[in-house]
Design goal:
The complex is a heterotrimer of chains A (236), B (539) and C (97). By secondary structure, chain A is an all-alpha fold. Chain A contains 6 helices and no strands. Chain B has 539 residues and is mainly α. Chain B has one domain: Cytochrome c oxidase-like, subunit I domain (Cytochrome C Oxidase, Chain A, Up-down Bundle), CATH 1.20.210. Chain B is globular, with a radius of gyration of 23 Å. Chain C has 2 domains: 62 residues; 35 residues. Chain C contains 4 helices and no strands. The chains are: A mainly alpha (236), B mainly alpha (539), C mainly alpha (97). At the A-C interface, helix 1, helix 3 and helix 6 of A face helix 1, helix 2 and helix 3 of C.
Chain lengths: 236, 539, 97
């Protein structure tokens, strides 16, 4: 083991780069725990209202574009692959490959956001944003199978419940998109660090923990896609 | 007491740079602790000013001092300031920040920049909330119940909510930093079971901060979005459920009570050991009780909602689980008492606070059992019984521990001793004033006086006057330490490294400690509170 | 450093499985399986997440503490979901009594 105590990246409070890397990695994991619970509050809200209003959720879900959603899922999974490959390149000290993979990851992230904004634009045009200007036409017949007695929704009630779906849709995907934007910003910083030569096979924990963040954001989408886009699709 | 040679070290963290930048851009956990100390003290006195106005209004039955709307804002701002800006950061961000690295023998927290960032985030959140206050206040109560907060209230809900949202991140970052530090920065030989119990309680507190705060953040965000954009999450007009807000809110806000009281328990463990010159009785039990409280604290939130419309079966489960929290809490109280038994107790100021804590926390905890049982809780929900109960926990518990800890470690922080007579006097005043303020409220609540009203029937006046009188005594009690502690900064006698003759790594370095905490990184070969072997070596 | 360098082909394999699962979850959504639709969608999502966590995030090769953190976060999410849902699922019970 070479003497790494004087490595330029070693902060004063640590004894070794290994300790520093372990500490920052743990820090990122703990941060991701807070993210799990942050989104967890939304998933709990989603679960309750989907349980209460299955028809409204199915009707509203049909308004979302499965093709775009699926493409976006694929884009995001691909970006996770390139992110993993970026960490791999960093571990081996391959500066050029690292920069390429980081750049590709950013481009895929931006593509995701682009597709997402197209979807948002459609929803805006169709007045599917909840609030006073909300409009909704029911295209599939309400399926009364999942309704507890006395809860069969009439059309107006169904429309109200559809607003709850869209409120959740916009907040869940919106917060996810905010995380993507932050992720792209982090990648930009990482690209700069890689370009400057700060990242070496001895010191790559910034890349590693940025990767953890990126993969986490991917995981959130892995849940959002089926929960928002794929409800009761067979009813068509 | 072991005095040895008392001197002011030539080089320490306080004289390591004097400029404003050396404070505002510091990465030193000790300086950040002092930044937090100044800020939480400010918010404490702001919150306290609201309490003064509340008690003034309640001195007479008629609503003659402030209007009902102003009164609503007063108790809301009192709650918001005290809970989010004083109680939650009080011990972790000040004493915790100062002591966690020193107690484990580290040079600093693992993530010093994040630590400084957390202070700025805290201040930013505070500014938003102060803005809300200056712009006319907010009247929802600190709990922001929907639909009042999202639909009805016409006051500054959004800035206050944003302030709390932002401040939450400072809490998360502090907790994260402590967890990482305790896992990764312990000095050689400092095993988990050699750690002082204060660190166990800090660790447990950090777990709650990290696991609970994000849920509050998302809940507050949903309230803000619903209010701003008329989205529907809790709005009954769209089929939303206001009770869901309460679930999410209390998922954080019940454990938050343990964010407030666990650190105090950690302080008391330190104080009892130091002033009884004994190993804490049942060290392992006390350590695990902290973790148990942190975990169980997440399973009981429904006891805030017994009358809110949740299912009766759910209420029963929450009730049963709530009783469980009494077990680790009682373990702690019994073990502190057992530590004192046959110890050579010295009655110095910090110990007075520790004793005060044990007594008041016991009353607060036992009345908590009343509230955990569904039937009795329905009777006293939203009465002064609740107010009295949680003030016994938060003021009698948290604040007593905070002041006790501040007095115990003040010589370490400042390098100087305060006036012991004034300190004992004010500890006595606070204890008396506190009980006079809040004990009558138990009776008032049991008799049926509801909380959050600015007027009340005349037959409640005697008890209310007692309470208001107690509050003014309490206020004086809080001002005195402020004065003599400030005074001691300049004129106090030099403390020396170890004025109490206590054991623990923080007492092995100079007072105040150097910026890097220890001249040489310590190697630990002894257990916490090892008074049998260590004291003889020191004296 | 602490890192564990995995061969690249593991990443490509995981990527292929994730893409396949995405197609699978869309395909299944268009079949009428009743309540099983939701269960299938969630099972696939959980499976995909576990793959990402274990391989892309290297948890399989990480210290036990990392495992504890991951499991802890899922456990606390479970507390939130179970105790909240517990209320909603039992509210109606009285009416059927």
């Amino acid at each position: 083991m070479p003497d790494v105590t004087h490595h330029p990246a070693l902060a004063h409070q640590f004894d070794s780069l290994a300790q520093q890397s372990e500490a920052t990695t743990l820090g990122m994991w703990v941060f991701l725990v807070t993210e799990v619970l942050f989104f967890g509050g939304l998933f709990a809200t989603y679960a309750i209202y989907r349980g209460w209003y299955p028809d409204a959720f199915a009707a509203a879900s049909h308004e979302l574009d499965v093709t775009l959603g699926a493409i976006n899922t694929a884009v995001l999974i691909t970006s996770s692959l390139t992110m993993a490959l970026a960490v791999h390149a960093a571990q081996l000290g391959q500066r050029k490959a690292l920069m390429v993979f980081l750049a590709v990851t950013m481009i895929l992230g931006a593509a995701f956001l682009g597709i997402k904004s197209v979807e948002y634009y459609h929803k805006f045009v169709e007045h599917h944003i909840p609030g006073p200007s909300f409009q909704f036409e029911i295209r599939i017949s309400p399926n009364d199978g999942g309704n507890p007695p006395g809860k069969l929704a009439d059309v107006e009630l169904l429309k109200a419940h559809v607003q709850i779906f869209f409120s959740l849709y916009f907040v869940m995907t919106g917060l996810h998109a905010v995380h993507m934007v932050i992720g792209i910003g982090i990648m930009l910083v990482m690209l700069w660090l890689a370009w400057r030569g700060t990242i070496t096979d001895e010191y790559y924990s910034p890349i590693e923990i940025s990767g953890l963040y990126w993969h986490f954001v991917d995981i959130v989408w892995i849940f959002l896609f089926p929960l928002l886009y794929l409800i009761g699709r067979h009813a068509h | 007491m072991s005095t040895g040679t008392v001197f002011m070290p030539p080089r320490h963290y306080l004289n390591d740079g004097y400029g404003i930048r050396s404070w505002l851009l510091t990465r030193d956990h000790k300086r950040i602790a002092l930044l937090y100390l100044a800020a939480v003290t400010l918010f404490f006195f702001v919150g306290g000013a609201f309490a003064v106005l509340i008690r003034l209004e309640l001195a007479t039955p008629a609503g003659d001092f402030v209007s009902d709307e102003t009164y609503n804002k007063l108790f809301t701002m009192h709650g918001v300031m005290m809970v989010f800006f004083f109680l939650i950061p009080s011990i972790p961000a000040t004493l915790g920040n100062f002591l966690v690295p020193i107690m484990i023998g580290a040079k600093d927290l693992a993530l010093p920049k994040l630590n400084l960032a957390s202070w700025y985030i805290y201040i930013l959140g505070g500014l938003f909330t102060l803005y809300a206050l200056i712009a006319g206040g907010v009247d929802t109560g600190w709990t922001f119940y929907t639909p009042f907060s999202t639909v009805s209230s016409t006051t500054n809900v959004i800035p206050t909510a944003l302030g709390i949202f932002i401040t939450g991140f400072s809490s998360i970052l502090t907790g994260l930093n402590f967890i990482v530090t305790i896992h990764r920065m312990r000095a050689p030989g400092m095993t988990w079971f050699r750690m002082p119990l204060f660190l166990w309680s800090m660790y447990a507190t950090s777990l709650i901060m990290v696991l609970g705060t994000p849920v509050l953040a998302i809940t507050i965000l949903l309230v803000a979005v619903e209010r701003l954009f008329h989205f529907g999450f809790f709005d009954p007009r769209l089929g939303g459920d206001p009770v869901l807000f309460q679930h999410l809110f209390w998922f954080y806000s019940h454990p938050a009570v343990y964010i407030m009281v666990l650190p105090s328990m950690g302080v008391v463990s330190e104080l009892v050991a130091a002033f009884c010159r004994k190993q804490v009785f049942g060290y392992g039990f006390v350590a695990f009780a902290s973790v148990a409280i942190a975990v169980l604290g997440f399973l009981v939130w429904g006891h805030h909602m017994f009358v809110a419309g949740q299912s009766v079966y759910s209420a029963l489960i929450f009730s049963a689980l709530s009783f469980l929290v009494a077990i680790p809490s009682a373990v702690k109280v019994f073990n502190w008492t057992a530590t004192m038994y046959r110890g050579s107790v010295s009655w110095q100021t910090p110990m007075l606070y520790a004793i005060g804590f044990i007594g008041l926390f016991t009353i607060g905890g036992l009345t908590g059992l009343f509230l955990a049982s569904v039937g009795l809780d329905v009777h006293v929900t939203d009465t002064y019984f609740i107010i009295a109960h949680f003030h016994y926990i938060m003021v009698g518990g948290t604040l007593m521990g905070y002041l006790g800890g501040l007095h115990y470690w003040w010589p370490k922080i400042s390098g100087r001793l305060y006036n012991e007579f004034l300190a004992k006097l004010s500890a006595g005043i606070i204890f008396l004033g506190f009980n006079l303020t809040f004990f009558p409220q138990f009776i008032l609540g049991y008799l049926g006086m509801p909380r959050r009203y600015h007027a009340y029937p005349p037959e409640f006046q005697v008890l209310n006057v007692l309470s208001s009188a107690g509050a003014s005594i309490l206020g004086v009690g809080y001002l005195i330490p402020m004065l003599y502690l400030m005074w001691s900064l300049r004129y106090g006698k030099l403390a020396g490294s170890n004025p109490w003759g206590a054991v623990g790594l923080e007492w092995t370095t100079t007072s105040p400690p150097p910026t890097e905490n220890f001249a040489e990184s310590p190697v630990v070969t002894w257990d916490a509170y090892d008074y049998q072997t260590t004291v003889t070596v020191e004296s | 450093m602490t890192g564990h360098v995995l061969p690249k082909r593991i990443y490509y394999t995981i990527f292929a499985i994730l893409m396949f699962c995405t197609l699978l979850t869309v395909w299944i959504a268009f079949l009428d399986l009743g309540p099983l639709n939701t269960i299938a969608a969630l099972t696939i999502a959980v499976f995909k997440s576990v793959l990402v966590i274990l391989f892309f995030m290297h948890v399989k090769y990480s210290p036990r503490l990392t495992w504890a953190v991951v499991i802890g976060s899922v456990f606390w999410l479970g507390i939130l979901l179970v105790l909240t849902m517990g209320d909603y699922l039992t509210r109606e019970w009285r009416h059927y009594g």
